[in-house]
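Supplementary notes (optional reading)

For those who missed the lab, this is the record we used. Protein: Large ribosomal subunit protein mL38. Length: 458 residues.
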Amino acid sequence: MVKKKSSRGKSESEKNGQKTEQNRKLNTTITRVVRGIAAMAHCEAASKPILQCLRQAYRGRLAASQLRLDRSFSSTAAISTSAETEAAASKESFYKAIDPELVSSPRLERRLIRAGKFPVGSRRRRAALQGSPNYPFEQLPFQCFQEARKVLQEDREEKLQQIEKERARLARLREADPATVGGEAQHQTRIKSMEKHLEKLKILADINDPLVKKRFEDGMGDMSKPIYRHLANQKWREYRRLILIQRLTQMKVIPDVLPHIDPIVDVQLFFGKKQIQPGVFVDSRVSMVPPSLNIQSFDKGEKLVTIAVVDPDIPNLESDSFDNKAIFLAVNVPISPTSTSVSLEGLSESQVILPWTAPYSLKGSPYHRISIFVMEQKDQKPLDRNVVAEKANRDSRLRSLETRHQLKPLGATLFRTQWDDNMASVMEELGIEGADLELKRKRVEPLPYKRRNPASFR
């Protein structure tokens, strides 16, 4: 046992001797290199600081390696620093009070939405902000960015000057006598043209502002301002409007219900809190309750519209065709860019001509296309409810209503209904006959030359 200990001691002393020899050789090499540099530069004063820095760096590296070796053999937990403690505390508080501008976990996003708040911006942006210094957007420390903002600010100042000039010209034109301009019609035409140009200048003044685009992408845009209406209109036309037109034409709503429509307002359909995409099948139990609409207008000012809900697929067994049925009709409904929500159930009696009736479909019949149209009233004048109610009934066509009152279609959407598990009970509750019937297609007899003749078979 004594011999083993002595051999172990000798091995340790040999290792220490080897380390000392390596350190001595390294110091000698560093000294020679520095002296060579000093000799080449003929500057002894410059070599001493370099030598000191190299030696300090080597000693620091050696101490750090020894510290890592010591920690690797330790079985106790490391002592948490104050920075780690603060980070853990901030992380815990973040999970308790979720920040809508920083949340990036889908689970936390769902928890935030259930609490009535919505995340701000995209998930990628929120994840990037978690590790950023959180500089204000207009004070980002990038020289190129700040110089570009100066150029944009100068351009905005020019546009503001043009806006002031255009406003002065418009005010003078409004005060001018129509006879000196070329008549009342010419006077109004010029006023509308100048107002349109003024709105365009307002958009151009803010279209390149990064703060404006940031607010719009975060869902904080003020729709009373032209720039945010312009950006929202662009976003709607890039995707959702194309989908809407595709569904209306693919399912033949156009021209079965109306001959033509050019949607300029975004109409979104909701049953309860669930948004219904155009053309989606809705359960008959859900469609018993009147839906709500979100009608987003992109033009300035308030408009009076007529809302009509039509089912063009009511089977007519006598004529072997389909009839139209008006499910809902309301007039004099105000909409604006800032007031978009319209609840069909919450409209007053002076507005509702035909109250909501639940759409239904008989067993065996094709699906029904429940079409919703928003139509602008002429010259923004309210319609007389009694006059409209005289000729409006459940069997009237929407084309006749459009022609009679000179309505202009602004937007539309649709959903579909079909025979489902709840349809029979819904029809019984509403007192609609036909829940026990099943429609079947008639067998069409083949033409004589297509009939099978067994006598001619071999």
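If you only remember one thing from this example: The CA atoms of residues 248 and 254 lie 6 Å apart.
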